[in-house]
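Design job #97: recover the sequence.
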């Protein structure tokens, strides 16, 4: 991979950080990250990493305001949203992008299919619009479906499903998603434990 001339790295996921470690990307570059989890992973791997925002939009705004030395290099998965490199470059902060890992969509497991045909609630956390579209396409279950989406964009493909509840995280972060899932679990337990519940 040609990283000559690069002045800084952009990581929008912890997976990208781990892939960069595997590829031996040098640690001397400053790293601008999306979200606390990605930032912590990059710091743990040895980069001088700062969180430049909780979302791609916040990162773009932060970098445009701070104007670090460029060109920057966005190391990302093969599927991405936000057009970070394109938007930064158009606004005068030269940024290249290189996909360094694959994001494979997997079918539902045999266990998941069996559970989907039962009567117990299924709680499904959805972390991207791409996985939301796939889930909406493959779901044929009859079990009550309780969904947690990391953002409105991730929730959009789910509206076509016959779900019992859909909770959108207050912010697109792992911590807020964890809270959304916990709320669904608590509510599902109350419903299951209610008088007359099977």
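Job complete. Output follows.
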């Amino acid at each position: 991979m040609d990283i000559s001339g690069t002045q800084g790295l952009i990581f929008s996921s912890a997976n990208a950080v781990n892939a960069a470690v595997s590829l031996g990307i040098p640690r001397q570059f400053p790293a601008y990250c999306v979200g606390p989890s990605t930032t912590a992973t990059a710091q743990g791997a040895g980069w001088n990493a700062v969180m430049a925002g909780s979302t791609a939009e916040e990162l773009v705004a932060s970098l445009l305001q701070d104007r670090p030395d460029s060109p920057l290099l966005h190391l990302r998965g093969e599927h991405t949203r936000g057009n970070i490199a394109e938007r930064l470059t158009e606004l005068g902060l030269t940024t290249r992008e290189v996909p360094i890992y694959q994001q494979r969509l997997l079918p539902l497991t045999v266990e998941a299919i069996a559970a989907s045909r039962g009567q117990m609630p299924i709680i499904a956390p959805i972390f991207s619009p791409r996985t939301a579209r796939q889930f909406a396409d493959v779901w044929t279950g009859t079990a009550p479906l309780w969904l947690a989406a990391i953002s409105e964009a991730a929730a959009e493909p789910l509206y076509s499903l016959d779900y019992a509840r859909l909770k959108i995280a207050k912010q697109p972060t792992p911590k807020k998603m964890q809270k959304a899932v916990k709320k669904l679990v608590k509510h599902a337990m109350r419903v299951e434990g209610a008088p007359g519940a099977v």
